[in-house]
Design goal:
Belongs to the TRAFAC class TrmE-Era-EngA-EngB-Septin-like GTPase superfamily. EngA (Der) GTPase family. This protein is an alpha/beta fold and about 475 residues long. The chain folds into three domains: about 160 residues, P-loop containing nucleotide triphosphate hydrolases (Rossmann fold); about 170 residues, Rossmann fold, CATH 3.40.50; about 80 residues, 2-Layer Sandwich (GMP Synthetase, Chain A, domain 3).
């Protein structure tokens, strides 16, 4: 088991900046704004041969009382899961009553706590640290997380409190094991509620306030002896409604989470209906080539007429999702949630399919026999050879002549044909068309002396007949 380090403190003391330093990443959102981090964010760090987990937590006072209470619960949960706690304080703001309250709470939890004095760049660390001794946690460790100063000394102190690992893993598996599942959708579609329902605990903040989740949260999970990583993402609204710079960062992180996933569970709010933004966001998922399962949430509160209307809207507004499985669920009550994993497994396997070249050639020949490509400038487009060019999503490369003139309708025909014959469910497929170069293009045919003699005789013969 990797050791766990929790970062705790008031809002805007630099926890997320230190998190990025310890994980050598930019996974946590950083801005000069209190209350930015609202959920626990996990990251993997490594120094030498020792690896560890870092947990970034929300500050202990937030923008609203309801969220503040939830964030405090998240922070205390992170502390209880950790091996050592780094309690960050702000050297520039000095000691505050909130720092004293946090210190008092940490002392009774029985975890090793290191007091970290951040933002000491340009200050006298000894003079600045004097007032923080009154917290009774120990001597403050001065650092400047934004510039990376003091981090190595801090980690040496951390090693003194971490449990010794008797046998380090020779090659630790990827930090986010198994199938990575991203929950994507508009704000307040129920992504965090669904994730908590699957995990069986209040792992991420779930509130009726749209936009509660701003970071993408990665959570390892095991079900039926299979490993998964669940990714809760921030809701994505129309760009015209995104005025907050922090929310714009969250949109970017949502798109990055899509790229990091193997399968996307896209949540639609059945009570709100299908919006243009849903179609746009689904297009981004398809552009990324990710396997897809569509979950229509809040299904239990609809009347039979409303359910039929939603199904009709799915066919009318999202016709390009004919390859994806659709599941009608209630994240709040758990209805249909268990069926999602079977659909995820089918989509994941379809996205990773490997098809032999002879099998693809057989299917291409059948498709051509049923429906020939059209004529272009009096010449038939010929598709001669096909092979697989990649996975996730499956990429099939077709070679022929004049393929750049192949109509979009015929490309759709081929795409649907291969999907049906290979029984690919839940994954888009990509067809790449390549035209071979004509080796004689731009070259004149040089006649041999005998050919030139025959040509002259033929021309004389034709001239004699014309007279």
């Amino acid at each position: 088991m990797k050791s766990v380090i929790a970062l705790v403190g008031r809002p805007n003391v630099g926890k997320s900046t230190l998190f990025n330093q310890l994980t050598r990443s930019r996974d946590a959102l950083v801005a000069d704004r209190p209350g930015l981090t609202r959920d626990r964010q996990y990251g993997l760090g490594k120094v030498g041969e020792r690896s560890y987990l870092v947990v970034d937590t929300g500050g202990l006072s937030g923008e609203a009382e309801t969220l503040d209470t939830l964030m405090a619960q998240q922070t205390l949960q992170a502390v209880s899961e950790s091996d050592v706690v780094l309690f960050l304080v702000d050297a520039r703001e000095g000691l505050s009553g909130a720092d004293e309250a946090v210190a008092a709470r940490l002392r009774v939890m029985g975890k090793p706590v290191l007091l970290v004095l951040n933002k000491t760049d340009g200050l006298d660390p000894d003079a600045t640290a004097a007032e923080f001794h009154s917290l009774g946690i120990g001597a403050p460790i001065p650092i400047a997380a934004a510039h990376g100063r003091g981090i190595q000394g801090l980690m040496r102190r951390v090693w003194e409190h971490l449990p010794d690992s008797e046998a380090e893993e020779q090659e630790h598996e990827a930090f986010w094991p198994g199938i990575r599942i991203a929950f994507v959708g508009r704000p307040n579609a129920g992504k965090s509620t669904l994730m908590n329902r699957i995990l069986g605990e209040q792992r991420v903040l779930a509130s009726d306030i749209p936009g509660t989740t701003r970071d993408s949260i990665f959570v390892p999970f095991q079900r039926d002896e299979k490993q998964y990583t669940l990714i809760d993402t921030a809701g994505v609204r129309r760009r015209a409604r995104v005025h907050d710079a922090i929310e714009k960062f969250s949109v970017i992180k949502t798109l990055q989470a899509i790229d990091a996933s193997d399968v996307v569970i896209f949540l639609l709010d059945a009570q709100q209906g299908i919006a243009e933004q849903d179609a746009h966001l689904l297009g981004l998922v398809m552009d990324a080539g990710r396997a897809l399962v569509v979950a229509i949430n809040k299904w239990d509160g609809l009347s039979p007429d409303q359910r039929e209307r939603v199904k009709a809207d799915l066919d009318l507004k999202l016709p390009f999702l004919d390859f994806a499985e659709k599941r009608f669920i209630s994240a709040l009550h758990g209805t249909g949630v268990g069926d999602l994993f079977a659909a995820v497994e089918r989509a994941y396997q379809a996205a990773r399919i490997k098809v032999s070249t002879p099998e693809l050639m057989r299917l291409l020949d059948q498709a051509l026999a049923m429906h020939q490509p059209p004529l272009v400038r009096g010449r038939r487009i010929k598709l001669r050879y096909i092979h697989q060019g990649g996975k996730q999503p499956p990429i099939f490369v077709i070679h022929g002549n004049q393929t750049d003139a192949l109509p979009a309708s015929y490309k759709r025909y081929l795409s649907n044909w291969f999907r049906q014959q290979l029984q690919l469910v839940g994954t888009p497929i990509r067809l790449e068309f390549r035209t071979g170069e004509n080796p004689y293009e731009g070259k004149r045919n040089t006649l041999t002396p005998r050919q030139q003699y025959k040509r002259k005789r033929q021309k004389k013969h034709l001239q004699g007949r014309s007279r």
